[in-house]
Design brief:
Blueprint lengths: L4 H4 L1 H19 L4 H17 L1 H6 L1 H21 L3 H10 L1
Helix pairs in contact: 2-3
Length: 92
């Protein structure tokens, strides 16, 4: 399966985009720095809730997911019938 990093973490993606846009807009008009500050605060809340922490574990998640699908593919190829497949799959 393909790995879609930014689809997994839309909150982090949009917070980073809004922080960048807020900084640029803040350079033009200083009162708009509030956008970057709110985005940073929301990103901090995401970090506390655990979504942003999952970003750092994403590499291991991809490896585990790939290993699962490789094992599943092997089980499908090696199984003789549906009963054998279900038995091996349930032991997975």
């Amino acid at each position: 399966p393909k790995s879609h990093f930014w689809r997994q973490f839309p909150t982090v993606k949009w917070c980073l985009i809004m922080m960048g846009a807020g900084i640029v807009l803040g350079l033009v008009y200083t009162k708009l720095f509030i956008i970057a500050q709110l985005a940073a605060f929301y990103l901090f809340l995401a970090l506390i809730q655990g979504e942003a922490c999952a970003v750092f574990n994403y590499g291991s998640l991809v490896i585990i997911r790939q290993r699962f699908y490789d094992t599943l593919k092997t089980i499908i190829i090696e199984s003789k019938d549906y009963g054998t497949f279900i038995e091996v799959y349930n032991n997975l």
